[in-house]
Amino acid sequence: MKIQKQQLEDLNKKGLENHTSHFDFLAQSLSKSGVKVDSVIGKLADFQVAIPSWALGAGGTRFGRFSFSGEPASLDQKIEDIGLIHSLTQTAGAVSLHIPWDVPNDYNAIKELAANHKIKFDAVNSNTFQDQKNQKESYKYGSLSNTSAAVREQAIAHNKEVVEIGNKLGSKALTVWLADGSSFPGQNNFQTALTHTQNSLISIYEDMPADWKLYIEYKPYEPNFYSTVIQDWGTSLMLANGCGDRAYTLVDLGHHLPNTNIEQIVSVLMLKGKLGGFHFNDSKYGDDDLTVGSIKPYALFLIFNELVYGMQNNTQNPELGWMIDASHNVKDPLEDLIQSLEAIQEAYAKALLIDQQALKTAQEAHDVTACQELLQHAYRTDVRPLIREARLRHGGALHPIDAYRALDVRKNLIKERGNKTVATGL
Ligand SMILES: [Mn+2]
């Protein structure tokens, strides 16, 4: 299924009058307080988030997986799904592939299909947390950190192959997330595991094309429950520094212990020019993979405040690779992604409204109350008319979820693909 421009224009007509009055009112009041509204809308329109190839089907937990009818059964269909989301939201202009779940059969055909949907290939992801069929060595006791040289070599070779695949598609970054760690005290020697990991990462890094970046992700627990080899941002940063200039830390919102001050981590990494990638999701307890902004929208806003500050002030930090990394098992995956994109745009728009000059003045005057007021004034502004306007100007839907439902997208996908398709992924 492909959504036609005309279909969206017809749907948008219905809500246009209402939108225009809301937008005009907001734009006027923002302009009066010194906000350059067109510039904010331009930034919102430019902000593109990659959709991972594993998020288009229903996710599973270790207890079970309830597939969603009409799931994409091939990489082609996954790209078509992202195309649907992108045409509605105009903010999902990239795909992040997971290898080996989504190895293309025909590279040219896949590139052409993606180009047709205006989708670029973002960072590619390796997988050494599962054993694949006919794989010689097992990752049961770790991959890049394993005590066995044969296992480490196999894992290194896999990462190099992922880079090769990504390179053929136009990707420019490799994301490494390791499940390596230990579930019981004494199982691993921490120093040996870290040393092996560093050396393995260096071997992957040195083999990458010169214009590629390496993103090193961290996670404090799960699937190992006593220790993980790359448990936190400090360890990731240390490993990135050990690899070289084009190795960076990747922050995944769900990969922190409860109440961690993620915005501060973001800020410090950008100051050091070492924040490379960013994974969006939300969680109540742990790595719950919930819809972005569904639990802690204010925390997301505070994180975006630091991202915006960093993008404006830290030229030493490269452009970031943005991706949604969430996959759960109860909602229509496409509706869930649309909601996530909306939450990301909302937090970004609100952060862009913060009066940075006034904030700096208040900080220097130690006016703590004013500092809080400035942040919360931006946070309490209903920015949705700005996001809608950005979508409207680029041919998207005023109300993506409503349009998705009005166009019967899921029904059409089921008709095309059947009831019992299952997407590759967890
Ligand atoms: Mn992640």
Q: What would the keywords be for this entry?
A:
426 residues; alpha/beta; six-stranded parallel β-sheet; three-stranded parallel β-sheet; 15 helices; globular; binds manganese (II) ion
Morphology call: globular
Biggest sheet strand line-up = 6-7-9-11-12-13
**Would you count the extended β strands for me?**
13
Listing every helix as H and every strand as E from the N terminus to the C terminus, the arrangement reads HHEEEHEHEEHEEHEEHEHEHEHHHHHH
* Ions and ligands: manganese (II) ion
Structural class: alpha/beta
Largest sheet data: 6 strands, parallel
Number of helices: 15
Average pLDDT score: 96
Provide the low-confidence segments as ranges: none
Radius of gyration equals: 22 Å
Report the β-strand fraction as a percent range: 5-15%
Termini separation (Å)?
25 Å
Helix content: 40-55%
